[in-house]
Amino acid sequence: MLNFNSGSNSSSNGYVRYMASTASWQTEGEKLEMKQAVYDLKTIKTGWMRIQLGEAPEFIADPSLEQAASKPDGEDWKRGFKVNIFSKAMFGDDAVKEWGTNSTGACMGMQQLYSDYEEANKGDQLPVVSFEGGNPTKIGKGSTNVPIFKIIKWIDSPAELQENSVAASPS
User: Fold this and answer.
1) Residues forming beta bridges with residue 27, ordered by sequence position
2) pTM listed for this prediction
3) CA end-to-end span of the chain, whole Å?
4) 123 CB-contact burial (10 Å; exposed 0-12 / middle 13-18 / buried 19+)
């Protein structure tokens, strides 16, 4: 179970971003048709994240998935995650991208994907995941599109993911 209920890193990888308002994706500012990718859920990091317009995201990683870090001082810190995604078909030569977010809808979608991942318990293998769209969901006074993910199959970890592990990056 991921610890969203209770953390500055930047990655040398490129990034992807889920746009909850339109249930669509971007990579480095360009529209992306998210299809299938390997999600490195073995090295996912949860923590406190602050995303402010015009600034690099700040991230304070939890000591483990079971133990939340203390909430940092200051405003706008929310629970979030960082995970590497691999797809030569979508990303080309720069086949590993980082997805880091603290949006409520994205965290809900990742929570479900991680739950499915844990339930299947395929050992060292990683899931190939398809993006199936967004589920419009009311959150408090607002609404969001929670991403819907489906595990298609399981594979051994691609070498590129082992070289670009979120877990290997400093926290």
Assistant:
1) 16, 30
2) 0.88
3) 20
4) exposed
> What does the block give as tokens for 25?
């994706």
pLDDT single digits (tens) 24-71: 999 988 999 999 999 999 999 999 999 998 888 999 999 999 999 999
Which residues, in sequence order, are CB contacts of 160 under 8 Å at separation 6+?
Answer: 86, 95, 96
Return the residue matching tokens 């304070």.
Answer: 60
Helix H or strand E encompassing 148: strand 142-155
Burial class (CB within 10 angstroms; exposed 0-12, middle 13-18, buried 19+) of 37: buried
What 3 state SS string does 51-114 have?
CCCCCCCEEEECCECCECCCCCCCCCCEEEEEEEEECHHHHCCCCEEEEEECCHHHHHHHHHHH
